[in-house]
Amino acid sequence: MTTILKNSWLLWLILFLNIKIHAQNAVPDYIVTDDNVKLFTKKSGTGPICIFIHGGPGAWSKSFEDLGGRNLEDHLTMVYYDQRGSGRSEDAKNDDYSLNRMLKDIEEIRIRYNADKVYLLAHSFGGILATNYALQYPSHVKGIILANCTLNLNYSIQNQINYMNTSMGTSYNTPDDSLLNTLIKVRSEFDKKGLVYKLLSDNQKNIDLLHRIDDTNKSSFSFAQKSFANDDYLKDFTIVTNAAAMPVLVITGKKDHAIGEDHYKSFHFPNQTIVKINGGHILYYEQNRDFVHSIVDFIKKQE
């Protein structure tokens, strides 16, 4: 056997054993909320418990887990879950997708895993849930990690419109239309030009990979369909950030056109650390090493 083959075999074995260890530790599960909704959860890793709150609205946790999220499991006990009406979780029986209900779901997950205090790691829209949970249940939060998060959906939608207009040399605006309808129009044109991937990344192959994972999502997308009709989620939550006293790590992408490269500047958490990474909206995959390092460094300072 040549040296190259030996090294390749050894590398394969190391990778296999690492995957096997994680697979044995992972515990797919469902919890039933007090209003009788089954939520998909999965616990894996070692260390302090960290609940991952996915974005969307109405996405799921699998793509984050598969695209580098599980690399945090050497340092954190990750609890992945799919929000009600999303991913592998059930739809709300009574169409209750209110902010308070979504926060209560997180609280019931915390209780289910017997954690007095948890870290919250949110991506994108998940930042709204994480920040509000921390404000409502501050005694149960060790710290918040906001990765490419919006705390003002209207700001982020307008940022997307501006970016696409600039890229195409168009001038879609909102004087006689709603912000959401304008977004739909300009995004449609952006998509026709084959450029819509740029909202998330400079690399279309990475977005194709993301889509291959997300295409396996069999959800009814009930939460996604109802969220923008709910005023709970359309408020500017940057104005309440100064009330969250716990440690906060803000990870922002220098090329995040989905949220807005400068959105973090409106966050005013009293105890915040800001880390800028040269990446887009899915930098957790494309810049995974820097992403994981920034989180591990933050956790070590708290423990």
UniProtKB/TrEMBL annotation:
What positions does the domain AB hydrolase-1 occupy?
A: 51-286
Q: Which Pfam families match?
A: Abhydrolase_1
The entry lists its GO molecular-function terms as: peptidase activity
Some GO term, biological process aspect, for this entry: which one?
A: proteolysis
- InterPro entries according to UniProt: AB_hydrolase_1, AB_hydrolase_fold, AB_hydrolase_sf, Peptidase_S33
Keywords on record: Hydrolase
Superkingdom assignment = Bacteria
The cellular component terms of Gene Ontology attached to this UniProt record, alphabetical and capped at eight, are: membrane
Give the record's family classification: Belongs to the peptidase S33 family.
Q: What is this protein identified as?
A: Alpha/beta fold hydrolase
Source organism per UniProt? Flavobacterium humi
